[in-house]
Write a structure and sequence with these properties.
272 residues, alpha/beta, Rossmann fold, 2 domains, 6-stranded mixed β-sheet, 6-stranded parallel β-sheet, 35% helix, 19% strand, binds 2'-monophosphoadenosine-5'-diphosphate
């Protein structure tokens, strides 16, 4: 095998993955190089064949290829299978194994600010990011993982698929119990640059000491997080999820969980 790692996506030019992974490789004196590869949808299969021929050690997969990768690997980890998307491939002596580190990355980041036992959690959104996050939250000893989504059917289907029978689904019109939740997580793109003044949900009635997490990191502080701070909540932006999904991937490739505080500083310097 080669010493090459990478990420494939489209667009990919602004990816911060090379920054954090090359730094972690250097930190741990691992001979290797991580690059970003712009791959169009119609070239995904060829790109993966190329990676096989070159003996690439491992790679990440980002938008729009996470679902397309499912049919291009030799084995799929149970979580990635359930989530229905792959963001990390490990080359195990020629066998390409697909994983999804997004959800566990999010949870690892969240655990830096709170423990999750008995917590009531509200997830906003039911798309790809939500699928990964909800999957991983349901593996924890949380009291409840509810979803609020524009399309309630999509959220209900997701919870049924995950056999999350104690979870509830709300539409934005029907949710009126914000004060019940210890943790609120935005997984939608509402509030992302350039629509920075939008927020996905009203935080009126937010519980004292609640945690509000937004997976967006452009901007670093969304309107949702600003409002949550004003209300006295503990807030977390999308950097911990980004960094920890990378850290879990790095561990799958090397066996080492890298220094996520160091990665966070690097990313925030770049984005700040
Ligand atoms: P991702 O992979 O980033 O999660 P996605 O799969 O397209 O992206 O999912 C986007 C999520 O954001 C969905 O929950 C979507 O709601 P619907 O399922 O009803 O489409 C939500 N979303 C996107 N734009 C939105 C908006 N303007 N208002 C409310 N929800 C929005």
């Amino acid at each position: 095998m080669s010493n090459l790692y990478g990420v494939i996506g489209c667009p990919i030019a602004h990816s911060l993955s090379p920054l954090i992974h090359n730094d972690a490789l250097a930190q741990h004196h691992i001979k290797g190089y991580y690059d970003a590869f712009h791959v169009e949808v119609e070239n995904l299969e060829d790109a993966v064949k190329g990676f096989r021929a070159l003996g690439v050690r491992g790679f990440n997969i980002t938008i729009p290829h996470k679902v397309g990768m499912l049919s291009l690997v030799d084995e799929i980890d149970e979580g990635a299978q359930k989530i229905g998307a792959i963001n990390t491939v490990v080359n195990d002596n020629g066998t390409f194994i697909g994983y999804n580190t997004d959800g566990v990355g999010f949870v690892n980041g969240l655990k830096n600010v709170t423990q999750l036992d008995d917590k009531k959690i509200l997830v906003i959104g039911a798309g790809g990011a939500s699928r990964a996050i909800v999957y991983s939250l349901l593996l924890e000893k949380t009291a409840k993982v509810d979803i609020v989504n524009r399309s309630t059917k999509k959220a209900a289907d997701l919870l049924e698929e995950y056999e999350a029978f104690k979870s509830d689904v709300f539409s934005f019109d029907t949710i009126n119990n914000i004060e019940d939740y210890d943790i609120i997580v935005n997984t939608t793109s509402v509030g992302m640059h350039p629509h920075v003044n939008e927020m996905p949900i009203s935080l009126d009635g937010l519980k004292k000491g609640a945690i509000v997490s937004d997976i967006i990191y452009n901007p670093l502080q969304t309107t949702l997080l600003s409002k949550a701070s004003e209300l006295g909540a503990i807030t977390q932006n999308g950097v911990p999820m980004f960094v920890n999904q990378g850290a879990v991937a790095f561990q799958l490739w090397t066996g080492i969980y890298p220094d996520t505080e160091r990665m966070t500083k690097l990313v925030e310097q770049q984005l700040g």
